[in-house]
Amino acid sequence: MRTTRIIVLLASCLLVLLAHTAWSGPVYTIEFINGSEKESGVQTFQDQIRDEINALMKSRGKIQYQTRLVPVFPPEKSVDAIAALTKDTAVDCFISVGFDITDRVVRQESYPRPVIAVGVVDHKLQGIQRTAEKTSGVHNFNYIESHFDIEQDLRTFKSLYEYRHLAVVLPRDDARTSLLLENYFSRIHSSISPESDYSIIIISPDHITPGIPEIPESIDAVYLLPLFSEKGEQQMAAVIREVNNRKLPSFALLGESHVRLGAMAAIAPARNISVMARRVAINVLEILEGRDPATLPVSISRYAQNFVVNVETLQKIDFYPAWTAVEKARLINLEKLHQKGPGLQLKQVIFEALERNLDYLSAKTATRIQEEEAGKAGAALLPQVSLSAGVTQIDEERVEISQTYPAQTTLLASAGLDQIVFSDDILANRAIQNMLTRAQQHEEATVLLDTVLTAARAYINLLLATSAQTIHNDNLGVTRKNLEIAKNKASVGTVNASEVSRWESEMAANQISLNDAFRDQQLARMTLNQVLDRPITRDFTIEDITPGKGIELMITDSEVYQHLGNLKKVRRFSRFLILETDRYLPELRQIRENIKASERQVLNRERALYLPDVVLQGSVDKVMKEYNYREKTPSDLDHPWTVSLMASWPLFTGGADKKALSQSRWQLKRQQLQERNMVNQYHMNTCAKLETAAVSAREIDLAQTRHAAALKSFEIIQAGYAEGRNSVTELIDAQNAKLGSEQALASARYQFVLDLLEMERATGRFYFLDTPDEKQAFFNRLKEHMETTLKDNA
Known about the structure:
This protein is α/β, with parallel strands linked by helices. The protein contains 21 helices and 18 strands. A five-stranded parallel β-sheet has the order 2-1-3-4-5. Strands 7-6-8-9 form a four-stranded parallel β-sheet, sandwiched between helices. It has a four-stranded antiparallel β-sheet with strand order 14-15-17-18. The radius of gyration is 45 Å and the shape is elongated.
């Protein structure tokens, strides 16, 4: 045991010795100088610099990194600390990263060891020399100019919004820093917008209060510089949120990262940071190989602008720039442009449509009208009682000479009774009206089903239009990147100007597609409002279809989905759905009720040839009062009455009855043919919708596979195009294939839901509207059918 431990110890010592002796090349020490308060993004940028240095130094030497924290306040103390620090002969190169600490480094009178100051804002204002060769010309000193173009930022900001008083937000109060930036912004601002005012606003990142009282009410626009601290992103988000609450347009120096936090716009390309890190690494390599930093370049080449606008922020601050101002911008959160107002889910849209849709309400009203008509037809079979009263005035001579009129003035009341004993016309009309009422009820059910499908289709079309708008916006961003690659290749002569023009043409075409997608999204919103009988321009927030925000679909139930496993099961399930169509489809039930009404009409016309109408009639009169009578009517004669029972036959109508009978028979024949045709059509429709739904279920995975392959192919070809291996035509084809796959993937899930709803509509019922008992009855019928057909096939 003891021998084993000794062997393990010796082996460990040997490994350590080998590790120390394995590298025989030079070892260099690079030290990063940071402020005592770490600046936002500094660590990430330092990591990028390390990666670039390591990539360049692979076999040239080993690098040891270390970091030194130097307080930036008070500035004089930090300047002295840096002067002492840079005398350390054990360090081969010092690198300062961050605005504040770099400002302290450039104040040094001399540099005993090589120093690179990264992030100089303005060499003139900071009193730094730049030679004609774009070097520092100072022994052991190299600096890297900031990759941010504040002047271009403000020009772009001004094109978006004609501000009158601009606030430039700074992170902390340092006299020299503030003066430096104030002079810098004063020079830029006077050349861009001399008619407007600007103010330097100091905000303490550790004391961000709601409303930002440091920003006066006269301010109408804000230019955001990064707030430097360990919680820079959270603090920037808080400041941006308060700026948006004040409804102030904002522009971010740092670029897209702050736009995604909520700033309105920015143009700084994120790739410039990588280029800056690469420039630092190259200069470090030159220094380690013995070159004086005074002779190294201080400038970096910039990529094209990354003009981004946050549409959600535009909505929050209620400001919308001119279309021409954002025509070349990449729009972020475009899908949230109209995401305000109450949220709408699919089920909510359907139920609201059933309450408010005018077509459905009209159909319900028509049903009520027909029910009243049926009631009128039934009323004709009930006794018809009438009551009348009148005054009769005759001349005096007739009273004297006639016994018929005993009085000159008579007040008379009469009552009458009519009762249909038998009339096939009235009986037929009652039966036919009842059948037509049931037919109208089925018509109402048809409109209900159509309303559900129309509302769902309008909702899903809006989701599709929204996703299409997002996809075309993203595709426009991809084209911008390809145009940037083409411009870079053209600048070094690897492609000619025509290739740049080709991408500019693609940009214009993509912009047209985005405009069309925006229009389609607007129209889809209006259509949904119209279906719900809302004001066409009402705002609402549409919510995506998720398990908790969708509806129950028949085919997604495990008891149903199992019958889509193969072609044989699908065919058996299809026959079951045909039976369900016959059972539930309101269109078929409606025409069958109409056929019954026509059959009763034919029977009525046949009976009219030989059956009489029998009517019982009765009446009674009562003399209420007599005036100027010669002789008063006796009491036993003042209420005469009559009762009669009459039967009537149409003996001859000129052949009209026979013609009417023949016409009714032909109408019945036509309806029967229509029924046969409709049955075939609706059975075909049910089977077709089932096949479509089954295919849609399978296409979701295929669409994902297609998109993954198209995306991978595009990335490979795009990288090859940047390196000169692939042509512009190949890249455009790959981009179009990626675009098509994205559209197919976006629509696959929505189309699946819509196809399932259309399949259910074809059977005449919607699964999610059924009660639990109705669903159970459906499953019982399905199980019985599948078992029966399985036995029959066996």
